Amino acid sequence: MTAPSSPSKPKTPIWRQRWVLPVATGLIGILIGSAAAGGGADATTPAVPAPAPTVTVTTTATATVTAEPEKPTPAPTKNKAEDQTKGGLDAYGALEHCGNGAETGLKNAFPASKVKVHTLMGILAQEYRAKTDDWFIKVEASVDDNRVNVECVVSGSETSPSLDDILWY
Q1: 9 to each of 2, 6, 12, 18, 141, how far by Cα in Å?
Q2: Whole-angstrom distance, CA of residue 22 vs CA of residue 41
Q3: Is 162 strand, coil or helix?
Q4: In angstroms, what is the C-alpha Rg of the chain?
């Protein structure tokens, strides 16, 4: 008599094995990283650029142009009343004086904070007011990670500017 055969388990396909998913994920990550890094070039091997192709172009052209002589453009005139106060304070001097005054005031108000007045890229308004003969300046400032707007009114001369009013909020 033959021994009764035990029922055999069906074999699990390879893609259902427990180890296949982590191995496949790792291989895909390595392939993506290699492609993003430039196709597998060694970090120790310097890349040598290929020599540029040489192209020679020869053209021959004939043109006849008739034009009127160009009239000279007059040099721009600087209207003192629009560009500076009666004492000679221009926009740059007013902006510098406003920035220095704002930085000093903010540092005194917040002594434990890092203060920076952005007088280059943070200019929000810059206007000469002829009626009052002064400059209105509005700039951004930073106190730690907080943004602050600073408004100044500056008058006087280039050698002796006066910070008439300052407000930050």
Answers
A1: 21, 9, 9, 17, 74
A2: 26
A3: strand
A4: 37
Please tell me whether the overall predicted TM-score, pTM, comes out greater than 0.85 for this model: no
Cβ atoms < 10 Å from Cβ of 127: 11
Question: Which single residue is written with the structure tokens 């007088």?
Answer: 119
Burial of 135 (0-12, 13-18, 19+ CB in 10 A): buried
Rounded to whole angstroms, how far apart are CA atoms 5 and 21? 34
* 161 touches 150 (CB < 8 A): no
Given pLDDT bands bounded at 50, 70 and 90, which one contains residue 80?
very low
Q: Is 39 left (phi over 0), alpha (psi -120 to 50) or beta?
A: left
Element (H, E) at 106: helix 91-109
Residues 106-144: tens digit of each pLDDT? 999 999 999 999 888 889 999 999 899 999 999 999 999
The secondary element (H helix, E strand) that includes residue 146 is strand 146-156
- CB proximity list for 125: less than 8 A, separation 6 or greater: 136, 137, 138
> In terms of pLDDT, which residue wins out, 159 or 4?
159
